[in-house]
Amino acid sequence: MIRVTWLVAMVAVAALSMPATAVSGDAAGEALQKRAEAGDAKAQIELGRALEEDGAPADKAASTAWYRKAAMAGSADGAWRLGFALMAGTGTARDVPAGLEWLRQSVNISQDADHMAALAMLLATTGGDQKEAMQWAQMAADKGSPKGFEVLGMARLSGKWGLPKDPALAEKLFTTAAQKGDVNTQVALGKLYFSDAFGREDSTSGVHWLQAAADAGSAEAAGFLGYLFITGKEGVPVDAARGVALARKAMAGNAMEGHYAMGVAYVTGVGVAENLAEGWYQISIAQRMDSQQGLASAGGYLAKAAAKLTPAQLAQLKARVDADAAKLPAAPPGP
Length: 335
Fold this sequence. Notes:
Keywords: Signal
Helix content: 55-70%
Number of helices: 17
Number of strands: 0
Mean pLDDT: 90
Pfam families: Sel1
Structural class: mainly alpha
Protein name: Sel1 repeat family protein
Low-confidence stretches: 2-22, 331-335
Strand content: under 5%
Signal peptide: 1-22
């Protein structure tokens, strides 16, 4: 179950995270439209965001057109959103080089450190100039962005993107980002300590950073750590009560790791009364959520449960899984 997801999703940072205002025919919607048409860049962006979330192709095209108007008027936010629209082909033809150029223009205007780190990551992973990518990452780190430290850590850990491999330095860079409170980095660092990425395994540090991330609200970290406490894997002493509590917390956040950890608990009877049917169901749901095929041990637990379930029970469980899996949100793309 050890997986480290490199966080390309980090590019969807603050400027893309605010909720959009619905566009309607009411007075507020009409006023927003008039302000946008009058050249108000903030209104253009707000209108663009609302249209983008409507889902209709024509609205997405209109959304990108409003972002372009704002960008052409010198808006950093407009340029940032236009860059992503071009890179994704949202409402326009996909054009990665043009998208990257608009992102550069945005960052040059805003000097936003997290956006610098996001640009660095995009340049590094889309065939852009790797030297430039690392320059943006360093600038982000110099401004105190944990994402900047994370990108530099990735580069030093892998030996890619124009920087020599240096696991010791990578550990320091990841740790700096984690200490700054970046939850995604805390999750990644915690998992890395259960691998030999830094030349050694360190379960104590791994538990520390996963617990920090779980305390900060990461359902993924809670589920992963819960699994370790339930199973005693990776040198972590079994703590059934703590493991089940973490797994349930992760399930409340609908994290795949939470479903899996609770499924294992039910199948093995650790921390809860044995319930093979519920265990089989939870593990199967986790498999449906696992876009990266990381649950290597799932088959063994499923087989253990299935051996004591009747064909009729299994048929009912499969139907339940099929019905509930159809309601799950789409899994994010793998790294």
